[in-house]
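thoughts on both lines:
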Amino acid sequence: MRLSHVLSEHRLLRLRPVCTMLRKSVLRLLGRTGASRLSLLEDFGPRYYTLGSLSARDDARDARAYFTTPIFYVNAAPHIGHLYSALLADALSRHRRLRGPSTAATRFSTGTDEHGLKIQQAAATAGLAPTELCDRVSKHFQQLFQEAGISCTDFIRTTEARHRVAVQHFWGVLKSRGLLYKGVYEGWYCASDECFLPEAKVTRQLGPLGDSFPVSLESGHPVSWTKEENYIFRLSQFREPLQRWLRGNPQAITPEPFHHVVLQWLDEELPDLSVSRRSSHLHWGIPVPGDDSQTIYVWLDALVNYLTVIGYPNAEFKSWWPATSHIIGKDILKFHAIYWPAFLLGAGMSPPQRIYVHSHWTVCGQKMSKSLGNVVDPRTCLNRYTVDGFRYFLLRQGVPNWDCDYYDEKVVKLLNSELADALGGLLNRCTAKRINPSETYPAFCTTCFPSEPGLVGPSVRAQAEDYALVSSVATLPKQVADHYDNFQIYKALEAVSSCVRQTNGFVQRHAPWKLNWESPVDAPWLGTVLHVALECLRVFGTLLQPVTPSLADKLLSRLGVSASERNLGELYFLPRFYGHPCPFEGRRLGPETGLLFPRLEPSRTWLVKAHRT
């Protein structure tokens, strides 16, 4: 019988008075007063003990979850910004699977965007057919994501037949609803950004010879004046519906500053949007149904990929839409937060549930660019720092609200400090044969560490700081889940790292290496110290699975935690503290697997290699 079944509601209610007393006692012992301090211990009790509430919360909310990255343009090789987008979506997807009752209830798609003028031009420059260029670069993305452990359930290419069917059907829906008309478009077009720009979004920039030329105000890329007959989407009709959607859903775009930016854009004029190009000018794309003289606009083509993956236009797609979370870079916010929701509303569908927006990565304080020669090859980084190490760095240091900086010394310092020394050192201490000769999960002694702090007796060894540790680790899974919900994975990892430091302090404070297993006085407390530390490690390993899957597997395997005991719904922290049996107590640890994360050494020569692409 599962432990969660043993904990009946009646028993949980009986525990609440004890937990209330525990909160007050710990605060008294720590010398803390005031309501603001209660947040650390507010839920100390049954809620800490079983985290089944996390999966229950998901069941009550959405039965299915669908995560997407942008589909990446194949005009150049992947860089760390592409990998960062994929890692954010991967971590969100993995965490959702840990919380849900079935992995089948979660989907995660990524892929490559293979149509458009840029691809057509890049292929011509390389002396390749567009299909050859697309095959080559798409393969690079697939190899990178496979090496980086990206657990996508679908990798889509916009040159696939299924996508062409979806795009042309979607076009037909928009046309049948009277939202497409043919007209002459005259204005600025940015080939680099694949977008049309109003006059207000164009400025002039001085060239190296002192002459000026027009560029996009937002991206700085060159623009050219275009006049051609195209199909035009009645975007202007959707300004107010988009405003109502965003104002009624403050969490639709996260973080909040990006939500605010989109509302500001919608305060401006929203002109109709050209959604096709002349085939004589752009032939590499999907033809407009019934009019081969026109090619569908690359962004309309690309955005429909999110529907293609889930079976559109077949009815099956409705079971996944709109329970969708898009993870995108800030440079493509307008396309996802204005154009895409408008297209969807025009087709009689709902906008996506969430749009998570992240900022960019710089290198040593400079924007990555080929001209500066500082574009970082992510595959080289995976080899240099290990897959789990580089995943951890990007997700630990990447803050969605603002641009983040990358340089070798920063990566090495973080990984050595948090993975090699703090987490790896803690595991080594608690599993070393000299301290744990039986190589088991030792027994927890309730007289040494009673559930009520402040008790006095010859056997009581727990201190106020030890109860604070139990509180911190017990609240950690919910805290981490909240950070994931708020698109703050870096804060989730910061919280885990803080608890790792706290646990190291606990072990250092009680110095189990100074205690003797042969002593009837020392042995119960020695076992308890190791038991608590191993329980903390089990929680850390479980929570790190979405970010460092191989490292977490290595840690949990060393603790003897089976695959069926690694979900958040099965994460029962320190049950002996509450007077319940612990399934791990007395269990043998898993086999020795060496250092959890070997320390890295700085390498100047590597920096040069990493920046060559």
